[in-house]
Amino acid sequence: MPSDSKFSRSIELSKKNMVAVSLTSLSKEEFTNFIDSFDTVLTDCDGVLWLGNTVILGSPNVIIQLQEMGKRVFYVTNNSSKTRDEIVSKCSRLGYPATRDNILSTAYLTACYLQDIVFKKKVYVVGSKGITQELDAAGIKHLDVGPDPMCSDVASLLRNEVQLDKDVGAVVVGFDEHFSFPKMVKAATYLKQPNCIFIGTNTDEILPTEFPLTVPGTGTFVRAMETCTNRKAFKIGKPSPYVCEAIIKRHKVDPKKTLMIGDRCNTDILFGTRCGFKTLLVLTGVTTLGEVHQLEKSSNKEDQELVPDYYIDRLGDMLPLIS
Ligand SMILES: [Mg+2]
After folding, report:
1. Is there a contact between 303 and 20 (Cβ–Cβ < 8 Å)?
2. Cα within 13 Å of Cα(6), Cβ side
3. Could you give the CA distance from residue 320 to residue 200 in angstroms, rounded to a whole number?
4. How far apart are alpha carbons 313 and 288 in whole angstroms?
5. Where do the domains of the chain lie?
6. Which of 13, 104, 111, 279 sits in a 20 to 30 Å window from 249, CA-based?
């Protein structure tokens, strides 16, 4: 047993490690050490670089500056509704330098995963064309996406309207603006087969947008399907370690020299902590500073993993520090 003083000192130290440091409070020398501590940047998109279709002012200049300093930048997004090409176009439109090779989206990574396991059957997709186009690019068969609305009542639906495809061997659940009861019935019925693969692109509960509305995110749909099937989906996006595996497999990334930037503690920061990256929270998206302070006070180990190493109000506030 450690002596009391040693014990209390070790608690104090571990508490100290659990406190997020404001980047703007660092001295010039400390900030230089911070910048020198990484050569790769993984950045989340929604809530860090943009909100919906609106750029977050100052963020493009920081990303450009980091690239000019020789840092490799990857855009890592849980957004499953866009292909890599669509994300490249969005980046270009909003002022971010990007090519297909530095985009890691859950639609693309879902296709990578099915390729990795040599999946040969068809996929039933509860999601959008972002997913099916990436499946097409990977040569993976799938059923069509789009509206599948409730036309009458449950009895009629079950009696006449549900048609199933015998070749389906996987269900992928992503963001689906046409999520519906008939889709749930079909997906749940496919998943009754224990060998039918169940993939959730990500677990984000809500989407950050520029509107003062609460917008349910993919995690809402994934959990609904987990509830009615009594199964757990294999998760592709942050904080699942699959993203980390995929990055290390496809690009040479040293976790100790990598910075993860995000706006959500329970996806971006947790992902960064689990992968051994340094983590930076920006306050332009989902998580608030008040929530970070609550996590800092918690003695729960899981909460501690959600505390970022650093935080900053907005990414653009880094510009005067690095230039
Ligand atoms: Mg985000």
Report:
1. no
2. 3
3. 40
4. 10
5. 108-235
6. 279
Write the pLDDT tens digit of every residue in 79-123.
Answer: 999 999 999 999 999 999 999 999 999 999 999 999 999 999 999
What distance in angstroms lies between residue 208's CA and the mean position of ligand 1's atoms? Answer: 7
Catalytic residue IDs: 44, 46
Rounded to 5 degrees, φ, ψ at 28 are -55, -45
Q: How many Å lie between the centroid of ligand 1 and the Cα of residue 160? A: 41
Pairing of strands 54-55, 50-51: antiparallel
Q: Report which residue type is found at 308.
A: P
Q: How sure is the predictor about 303, in pLDDT bands with cuts at 50, 70 and 90?
A: very high
Q: Is 101 annotated as a binding residue?
A: no
The reply, when asked if residue 44 is annotated as ligand binding, is yes
Take residue 38 and report the two structure tokens written for it. Answer: 């990484």
pTM value?
0.84
pLDDT higher than 80, residue 289: yes
What gap in Å lies between CA 222 and CA 199, rounded to an integer? 9
**Could you tell me the CATH superfamily of domain 108-235?**
HAD superfamily/HAD-like (3.40.50.1000)
d(CA 311, CA 314): 9
